[in-house]
Design a protein that fits this description.
The protein has a domain of 82 residues. α2 runs antiparallel to α3. The protein is mostly helical and 145 residues long. Helix content is 80%, strand content 0%. The mean pLDDT is 80. The longest helix has 58 residues.
Length: 145
């Protein structure tokens, strides 16, 4: 029965090591992958933020029109109604501004979270990829410098 012997051909060994060394840079690959994933997440986050922001701006425009109608809609001046309409509009405007600030803070926090987890994932993937490349190259020891 024939037994398999290890491939001791130095040219084949050199080829395996060169292939591992010249393959897609194992350090850059995970970084690029995570960069693209983070961009997608940031796009989703900013789209959601922008949508809510524009909805509030539309609500503010409609509220301004309602306030204007309350002030001047029937052609008569009612100081009491005007003061109430103005106070209601200002209170609602302050609420919209507070929501803008809360949403901006939330957006910033979520985006920073995406960066942090993306970087940690990229480093983990880099370590795993480098380990796999080292296995392919059959590295048995480090070369002293």
């Amino acid at each position: 029965m024939a037994t398999k012997t290890a491939d001791t051909n130095p040219v084949a060994e050199l080829g395996r090591q060169a292939l591992a060394a010249l393959s897609l840079n194992p350090v850059a690959g995970p970084q690029v992958h995570q960069f693209l994933e983070i961009q997608e997440k940031l796009l989703d986050e900013t789209e959601a933020f922008s949508k809510r922001w524009f909805e509030r701006r539309h609500d503010a425009a409609r509220a301004s029109i309602r306030m204007s109608k309350a002030l001047f809609g029937d052609g008569r001046a009612d100081i009491g109604a005007a003061a109430t309409a103005m106070q209601d509009w200002q209170a609602q405007s302050a609420e919209w501004l507070a929501e803008d600030i809360r949403d901006w803070f939330d957006l910033s926090t979520r985006c920073m979270g995406h960066f942090a987890t993306g970087e940690a994932d990229a480093e983990r993937e880099t370590i795993e990829t480098v380990a796999e490349v080292a296995k392919i190259a059959h590295v048995k020891h480090a070369t002293p410098v």
